Amino acid sequence: MARRGVDATGVDYAPEMIDLASQKARDENIPQARFVCSSIFDFEMQREHYDLISANGFIEYVSQQEMLNFFDRVAQALVPGGSFIVGSRNRLFNLISMNDFTLQETKSGNIDLLLREAVKWTTATDITDVVRGDFSPLQAPETEHTKTIIDVATRFQYTPFQLITLLQDKGLTPIEVYPIHIHGVTPSFQRMNPEIHASIANLLQAYARHNMPLLTHASSFMLHVMKGK
User: Which residue from 43, 86, 153, 226 has the fewest beta carbons nearer than 10 Å?
Assistant: First the structure.
């Protein structure tokens, strides 16, 4: 965004990341890029100040209450008509991953509601066809997950409908859900045949925009919501 002449601020609590980003901005002569080393919960977000707020690789690492507090701050900080883009691990993908995550959903007793949501996304022609009805409860706060490539015990997962419902409560209207990392094969096949998986995933990603039937097969997604004018 800063390359396009937009004033942009990046926030991260890791000083190493801030140093890398700041050096990159200097090397590429991008004065509109500003970086702040801070927790987002300590960062002062001015009221109705931002046209766009983006959070990627974030909500899965904070508690659900912290996430809701963050959504409150986002809703207050956006200008009317401003956009919020948030990335999430896709809980619906557990339905087809055929691994420990699938077994966890079976044990949770929520698999029927997850399946119902998956069917809605697969058959709907418009996002408004999906954003009503019941949704599965959020994962338990004490949930521990099988290790992924990130060495943490808990990385929360959400369904698109769960996040849309929570954000609608904050006055933010859903605009688009964009599937990311679409799997044509199971993760076990992916590990044995990474090149085949990558070829299929890259092919499918080209069809991701406005293609909700691909959502359940995506291990993550980006959600675009907008504040009312």
Answer: 153
